[in-house]
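Subject: for your reference before the review

Hello V.,

The reviewers asked for a structural picture of the protein, and I figured it would be easier to keep everything in one thread rather than splitting it across files. Below is the amino acid sequence we used in the manuscript, unchanged from the supplementary table.
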Amino acid sequence: MNVPNKLTVSRFILTIAFLAVFFSRIRYHETISLFLFSIASLTDYFDGKIARRDKLITNFGVLMDPLADKILICSAFIAFVDRAPSRELLEWMPAWMAVVVVARELAITGLRLLAASKNVVLAAERYGKDKTISQIVCILSILVLASYRDWGWLGNIFSYNLFGFGPWVVWFTELSKWVAVTLTAYSGGAYLWKNRALFLDDL
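And here is what came back from the structure prediction:
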């Protein structure tokens, strides 16, 4: 197994570890969850970078890399829906936002499977990459907001009152949710519309 594929497999393992810690009651579990999710996100960056640089693209990587990404992202969004409110996170993640994210990923996965059955390869687009980045930023900001008060003096960086709206991490997190769900919905709709011939032919 080459290095990019090992990184992809490690992302599945890190996703399980992230969820186990997130739902646990151990001390600083939110900070540990933040660390695990950050590492998992970095593996997504490096496996693609290494695969392209060293020309190690395999069928396993083509299939499992995006699947690992979707499982990681969707797991976090779903996990946040059921989380009890905290002092600054009155609602970790509205259920409808999680539904938009999961529905989009399932729809695009289904489209790609349909395309594969017709020997058509659908390439990733820029909007899809921007969507993924916005989702990762959203998840990271939620986890930071949930845990920064445990970080002592370091947490003061995130509690700074910017523009008179309270701790900047609070409004940044809320903004990141809307940016992520908007890009998710738009990128999914645009991708389906652009490749509509694939499924309209079968209707």
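For the response letter, the relevant points are probably these. DSSP finds seven helices and no strands in the chain. The radius of gyration is 18 Å.

Happy to draft the paragraph if you're swamped.

O.
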